[in-house]
Protein 1
Amino acid sequence: MLDIKFIKTENPKPIPGPENPLVFGTIFTDHMFVMDYTEGQGWHDARIEPYAPISLEPSAMVFHYGQEMFEGLKAYKTEDGRILMFRPDKNIERANNSNRRLMIPEIPEEDFLTALKELVRIEQAWIPTKEGTSLYIRPFVIATDPFLGVRPSYTYKFMIILSPVGAYYPEGLNPVKIWIEDEYVRAVRGGIGEAKTGGNYVASLAAQMKAHEEGYSQVLWLDGVERKYIEEVGAMNIFFKINGTVVTPQLNGSILPGVTRRTCVELCKSWGLPVEERKVSVDELEEAARTGALEEVWGSGTAAVISPVGHLRYENEVFQIGDGGIGELSQKLYDTVTGIQLGKVEDTFGWTVEVK
Ligand code: COI
């Protein structure tokens, strides 16, 4: 069992009350988890200490070559006061998949889970309970060697910070407008698209700003080679309901393997719906939108949960999905996923992990 030293803050911050609108990712709790890695010694000095700025050399490798991995998951408080995390095993597994791709040393799964549980347990008073809120958990690893040559670092910091959050999009559950990007690309197969790392997100910024200027919330990426096949939205994976079938792009190395994506696939299958994980071309989507076969579109993500899409824009055409409102299946998925997360719907899949 990981031995974690606890240094309690002497200056606790006020915990936001239910009147606080909780914008995504702006408030951080009193403590953070930190563990160091040194080549030859492995991961060491696990501690939970006051949330505070950290000190790094300006030459630290993460600043120059972006060797870093991050994750995102959430904790919830149930009506009867239990604390639940949703599928942390999947985030831990993905974190180590990303670590391998990024030449970052893996974190022992059990230690990772102990660190998550212990920090959430200490900070449980920060878990908001108002509808649509949760405690967002952000684990990350950074390369810390002071060195300007290009190679994997020999030292790292693994940290976990916590943030009480509301909806990721200001729209909440109201449908978002999505811009299908045909100029910039996010990732290519063989690159780092399926790893959760900052580089994939900085690659998205120019297109995101272009989309924002046009009144769109997010960018839907096409494949980096032919710019023909749908990939993902960047902050979420994407699903389509076409003629009664649930369709989502198959994982291909450049798409992030989302935990909520997997959850949607598993839930839809359990409801007896036909589900296809396959290539989806933008032409197929255009055609389905034009003929009315495109019944629903939604995004899935930890931060975004289930986010209905009301409009898609491709080149100069704008397609309204259904009546532009929340689709029936999107609503059912949202209610079921959040119901399981909050302990209101029976967790027959064993997805939730209680923090005691
Ligand atoms: C998440 O959904 O947890 C993510 O990491 C996406 C991020 C852009 C907020």
Protein 2
Amino acid sequence: MLSCIFLFPISFILFMEFTAIANSNIAIIKYWGKRDEKLILPTNNSISFTMDEQLSTTTTVEFDSNLARDEVILDSKQADEKEFARVHDFLNLVRARARIKIFAHVVSNNTFPKAAGLASSASGFAALAGAASKAAGLNYSEKEISVLARFGSGSATRSVYGGAVEWQKGNAIDGSDSYAIQLSSEKNWKNLRNIIAIIDAEKKKVSSRAGMAETVKTSKLFRHRLEAVGTRFEIVRNAIKNNNFEAMADTIMEDSDDMHACMADTNPPIVYMNETSHKIAKTVRQLNGDSNEKIAAYTFDAGPNANIYTTNPKEVKSLLNEIEGIKKIIECKIGEGIHYSNKHLF
Ligand code: 2P0
């Protein structure tokens, strides 16, 4: 009987659809710079919190021997050329690992605007890695899914897990030890929120990928960042282990400031934060200064939108309401890692 199964050509194997849901993550020790662009290996360890389902991607994948090419639908539209190429390249990697040569249907929906500085590539490639690996018959562990997701986008390694997550830069030349691990479950952070102030939901002008490559190449300040980020990483990691937000608030802001300083030091300079972003940063610093505790920490990604981690969301929201130029405020909880659903998108 067993030998009969092995006699079947690969195209007769029945592939099923799989649906994965992954949430975005917002880093508190930032990833900005690669030591290997092809393998997507970072220059430093980073740490993030995974967001709740308000910032998530649901992706269904099915390999289908009737297809003459991959079919990719993103947010109800055919993927454009660039998006298609990135998904197709990623699927090629999955096909090579699964030793199949069959094209796939991919349908993916985000709950938030793509490329608005809200790290959609993180949730996008984590969900794609989870759904595509299962659909291809690869029975991957979470660690293996994190390694696979990295080939789509570095920050996607971290979206595999919930709570506080560390992406270990690793040392191996082949990237086999560069993946994420969970530092602390979301259950330990029930009182923490990320208040996201959307200032601009348009697609960013300089992609993170292009921007960080330019920073590594041209910024002198970046060399200083590489020396300093390790200490900040340890401070934040210890604060997370001790479940102590106050102990890491200043360091979170320092790391964001440092990354944006390196961006500004890039030739030509990269500027993501605008006047409203800076007003928000000042307001958060004042809030901590006026109270006896550190109740908030801002962090900015590759865009003007502010992420404010806080144990007092009411206070932060009321201060944000007084700042002009904010289009929308989202209050996010610390969310869970990748999970799977029987509700498929096709
Ligand atoms: C982070 N960012 O740690 C940092 C902070 C943006 C600023 O990870 O080239 O989209 O696909 O690996 O993951 C954005 O970079 O870049 C990012 P690639 P990715 O979250």
Protein 3
Amino acid sequence: MARQSVDLVIHNAGQLCTLPAHDGGPQRGRALGDLGLIAGGAVAVHEGRIVAVGPGADVRAAYRGATEIDAQGRLVTPGLVDPHTHLIWAGDRADEFERRVAGATYQEIMAAGGGINRTVRATRQASLDALVRAGRARLDVMLAHGTTTVEAKTGYGLETETELRMLEALACLDAQHAVEVVPTFLGAHVVPPEYAGRADAYVDLVTGAMIPAVQAWRARAWPDTLFCDVFCEVGAFDLAQTRRILEAAAEAGMALKVHADEFENLGGVALGVELGAVSVDHIVETSEAEIAAVGRSGTVAVALPPTPFGLAQPKYTPARKFLEAGAALAIATDCNPGTAWCENMQLVMALATRYLGLTQGQALAASTVNAAFAVGRGDRVGSLEAGKQADLLVWAVDDYRQLGYRFGVNLVAQVVKRGRVVWDRAAEAGGGTT
Ligand code: NIG
Ligand code: FE
């Protein structure tokens, strides 16, 4: 029988990890870490989608690629999905980090007018072009480290005009860059200085003016899912304010996320589950009852180990408890200029193995299939299955157990997005070693 011609065949993968979805959903609880490993596997790709995955002999007997990539016995996985970032901002806060190293806390700096509001001042002054450039530079780093889909939040505008400019920047980046961007409106990141002491009035602005403006933007410019997130925390928004905003966003047809329990437990996780949030994120101080509730729900638990690491704090998400409760767990960078300026999901895996108690295979599943479900894209990306987008990585190592074990260097060899090679370490000057 004649072989079918397709755009691309990747063959000779020593380990092809497909990271399958389970019943069309994430890998839940103790089932986390189902690698779907095929030794000597191959993938056939046509028009940006996977048409076949399986043992190399079977795939190659059926398909001939216009381009053929020999993975040379190395590891092949889905592209990494980073389900929680604050991708675009202007300026930096290196001086605040210096103060933190000397003993000041993140909350002290925030209360003194630094922190998020410092970045808000810089971001309000940045043009659309400047924001796109800043975002593009970070996406370039993410792509080189294997991230092919990223969630990205607004939240450094905190006024309608700048929040919309941030959304516009995210839409531009999604259109221009190989990394796919999933936008989230985070108008309720903190209370901006002009509303100091008047948080409820700011919540009125978010629900009464910003959400309708965001809806109008969406109708014009963003046909896909748009998320709304709130920073539910002491010094940011309390539980009642968080509820008002999330309910208004849900009413406007947005999907929900919550920053909850990063420093203190205000009940944000229970609220997120009640409102059917797609994810609850940070989840360091989450109660046993709330962990159980997440386990019974469709809400994905997103742990952000670079945040406690970035803050040099000893407490991380009790990930194993979430797994015992049957929850779907994902991991993310939280890339932001305050707590965790980290673009690299490989470092997140390294931290997750050590501080969340995940095996390398679990960390990989939490960075791919489950992360895709945490951003509502599990039907399209995150696993190597027929019909899904051909987003995949050829690694410079031959065993998935090298991931997380080795850290501080880039272990990716090639990145394929929608069936095209978009990053290749061999093409990079002085591309590093393994
Ligand atoms: O996820 N928690 C709120 N937002 C970020 C920090 C943002 C910043 O400090 O600029 C976080 O840690
Ligand atoms: Fe965050």
Protein 4
Amino acid sequence: MTQAASVVSAKDLCLTYQAGDAPVQALTNVNLEVRKGDFVSFIGPSGCGKTTFLRVIADLERKTSGEITVNGMTPEEARKARAYGYVFQAPALYPWRTIEKNIALPLEIMGYASADQKKRIADALDLVNLTGFEKKFPWQLSGGMQQRASIARALAFDADLLLMDEPFGALDEIVRDHLNEELLKLWARTNKTICFVTHSIPEAVYLSTKIVVMSPRPGRVTDIIDSPLPKERPLDIRETPEFLEIAHRVREGLRAGHSYEH
Ligand code: ADP
Ligand code: MG
């Protein structure tokens, strides 16, 4: 079996924020390979560098040292090639724009022709099961639907890589379960590569092919777990011994990272 292409490759990646008089080591010596079609979750307590890592991939922050490539390019080149879609923690939809106009905004900025925009919006809404809600305003949608709309906005460029920063963190568990299932289906259907930040152990284990356990002060990777779970995952897979075993390993990794501080 040939190995899938490298999508994100980090070697001894470090990022130190020079804030005030105390520099913050947000990422220290991160080594990670994300390959095409992977679903990679980043889990760890606040301040361990999860958002920073996504921001480096997206060229919103610059590394201090080490190497990082995105689709074999520098993050800057990847950004210019529109290599990824970014989903933020809050839906960040403009309340005065309808759902379709929200999804259109980045396409307008990038200068897509109007017919192309329409097709991309329709396809993206279909992927997140929001067809029929084009003309609604964000406030007319539930929290889960708003978050799906913001995923549709990230999907509209049809980039192969999706960066998702705690997209379901603010939602209740039932809605989150449903969106987890939907996201897995979307991932299986589109063969996209997903980098997903979460605080939730079950969410990380349920979704991922690879789980990156991180820890703060300094921000670093403490464990990388390749999941043996099959790609087809009904929700009740969460009660199987295999699932619980991975969850246990994640929990141990988080605990080990924590004791480091004391
Ligand atoms: P996480 O997403 O895991 O909660 P972040 O990547 O947001 O962590 O932050 C990692 C560390 O870097 C934290 O200590 C945070 O306070 C610090 N940090 C994040 N952004 C900045 C910034 N722009 N300037 C200074 N420090 C920052
Ligand atoms: Mg964060």
